[in-house]
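Good day; I would like, with your permission, to put a structural problem before you. I would ask you to consider whether the tokens describe a fold that such a sequence might reasonably adopt. The full record is reproduced below for your convenience:
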Amino acid sequence: MAEHKKSPWEVYQEETKDYNKHPDNYKDAVWWLNSKPIKDEPQYAVFMDKYPAVEGHRLYIPKTKDAPGMIGLCFQEAYRDGMEMVNSGEIDGFNLALNKNACSGQSIFWPHVHFLPRHDGDVKGRNAGIRNAVAEIDPYNPENNV
């Protein structure tokens, strides 16, 4: 029988024991165990992703779980931050993404927006859209044998 290759969040769960994939409170989720937020506002917080798809990968996390307006606020703030970074020349563009439920790739079941900074030419020979924002061999994808 083939050995199950664990994804980083499964390993992290074993190491911390208090990691909760289905938090009831925003401070019970794994990002609060990772580090301090880079931005902590009354309605949302921003963290660097522990397993970044690209350098500068951020998470915008609402402090209220089931309020559609709060995830909308996170998209708005991620967009605003991204535009500031584009206008200052720090990045050339960005992707914003949301995964909802396991079938879409969600692994922490609290809503959050992914911010992926992009640079001209960061994807060679492929369409640079969200589907190709990360390398073909994602080291954090448990399906890859790297």
Q: What stands out?
A: The chain has a mean pLDDT of 77. Residues 5 and 87 are 42 Å apart (CA to CA). Strands lie at 39-40, 44-48, 58-62, 93-97, 113-118.
